[in-house]
Amino acid sequence: xxxxxxxxxxxxxxxxxxxxxxxxxxxxxxxxxxxxxxxxxxxxxxxxxxxxxxxxxxxxxxxxxxxxxxxxxxxxxxxxxxxxxxxxxxxxxxxxxxxxxxxxxxxxxxxxxxxxxxxxxxxxxxxxxxxxxxxxxxxxxxxxxxxxxxxxxxxxxxxxxxxxxxxxxxxxxxxxxxxxxxxxxxxxxxxxxxxxxxxxxxxxxxxxxxxxxxxxxxx
Length: 219
Known about the structure:
The chain is α/β, with parallel strands linked by helices. It has 2 domains: 4-15 and 84-215, HAD superfamily/HAD-like (Rossmann fold), CATH 3.40.50; 17-82, Putative phosphatase, domain 2 (DNA polymerase, domain 1, Orthogonal Bundle), CATH 1.10.150.240. The chain has helices at 17-28, 37-46, 50-57, 64-82, 89-96, 110-120, 143-152, 166-174, 207-215, and strands spanning 4-7, 101-105, 128-130, 159-163, 179-181, 197-198. It has a 6-stranded parallel beta sheet, covered by helices on one side. Helix 3 (50-57) crosses helix 4.
């Protein structure tokens, strides 16, 4: 039985990946560096350690943590201009509300996530918010999802993970949870092996599908 649904944030709940890319471009501009969308897709979305990669690749005179701080400041300024939910998210949340516990589990920091949720009017839609500030190792390690299960007091097999990236899927699977993938146009070629479903849109995750997944062997 599925008692909780745990959502990745960037690219799964909220269409922020291009916004994050724009923020990184702003943060990198003073150093004369411009990361293209394909570079960003491969090194920041599909795999972990994008800030570390770009600092090494372009021999930047700042540490990855400082670059991330510059990115966060730029991102927060961009939120009112461009951020919106991913397709089908509001309908999906309305269908699941009150049936299961809902949580956000993200590699992003709280300083980025909370303003976005407030802007979208989703700051009271979730039972828990697990951000990069709350665990030790980022996805694809399982720490974030284990922290969410503990916070919600559910067993791993009772928590369904919803992700859009390969590294997020790996994190959910490593935590012992069933995983549903909802790829975007930036993650369509990721490896989603091990997922119980790969959906086209978030609103395909209905209460009926949730019950079906919960009845499957191992769930």
